[in-house]
Amino acid sequence: MKTVKYSRQREAIREFLMGNTSHPTADEVYAAIRRQFPSISLGTVYRNLNLLSESGEIKKLSYTTGPDHFDYDTSRHYHFVCRECGRVYDMPLESIEAVNRAAEEYAPGAVDSHELVFYGVCNACLGRGTISA
Ligand code: ZN
Ligand code: MN
Question: What is the CA radius of gyration of the chain?
Answer without folding.
Answer: 17
